[in-house]
Write the structure tokens for this entry.
Amino acid sequence: MFSSLNVAIDLGTTNIRIGIRDKGITLDEPTVVGRNQKTNEYVFFGNEAKSIMGKVPDFIKIERPIVNSIISSFDGTVALLEKELQRSVMPYLSAYPFLKPGLHMHAAVPSTATEIEQKAVEEVLQKCGASEVSIYEKAVVTGIGCGFNIFVHQPICIIDMGGGLIEISILSGGGVVLQKTLKTAGEHMNKIIYNYLYLKHGIMIGENSCEDLKIELSNFGSEDKTMLVRGKSLETGLPKSVKVRSSDVKEALLTSFNHIMDSMKEVVELAPPEIVDELYKNGVILTGGLAQIAGLDEFFSAELNLPVKVSEQKQHATINGILKVSRRSEQVHKLRIQLP
């Protein structure tokens, strides 16, 4: 009766995900909020806020409260998380009509996060009703979510390609041995697609359309799909339609993926020979939203000369890792970041 309800929270740049221990993932929505600047109130959240992006009057500001996996708007993050907790966690508390359990919230932050940024996450969770907070390194819980035992001394390499950050990490012995972080992730790639169509076809399209093109057409295999996209003509300002092919999106994003491979090569060069030997045995694991791109594993494998596999839990590796850690108190104490 007096035990805490363990809640896992993945504060991603593109999506916020919430899970409850022994219940699984209960919510997965875009990390987007809409603020009424006249009243300074947050009135749109998640899917609804994303669907109206670019369609609202000037006094409604649509914003992303988390940028590059770091809280950029404290109030916006609190408002979004409070709303999503009401939807995904509060129904489970109705089973306790008289004495409700405390909420032990578990979250992850990038390894590059400063103490101030880590503290901001803790304060957000406390403001949203957490009685206890545990924060972990994102790379570590992502490795656990991919199904690896990171506590053994068998190094594994994970490339987590999310919306805000791309984290290339080598894990062993319960921690990060080597890591490199890039900010040229999914949200940045949307802007690259926008610029590509702007320059090549003279068309301006919305952010959601850029994301749809990236999801539908990104392909490093032989398949070449086509998608019709509508926007505004740069010359006339009138509506314009353009057919975009997979080869166009690949051409636009190729430099970004080459940058990821160059960074991966740098990490391998810095690694001790023993670790490199293990990487040849265990391979490289791709996870995150961009890991869904068809043929990307073969493209990376050919360039890196290493076996590359895509995680089965590619989109939910981090939230599943947090849930797994929350089930074992000894792992919570081993892995949680000690904040001042």
In short: The chain is about 40% helix and 30% strand. The CA atoms of residues 154 and 172 lie 6 Å apart. The two ends are 31 Å apart (CA to CA). The longest helix spans residues 246-270.
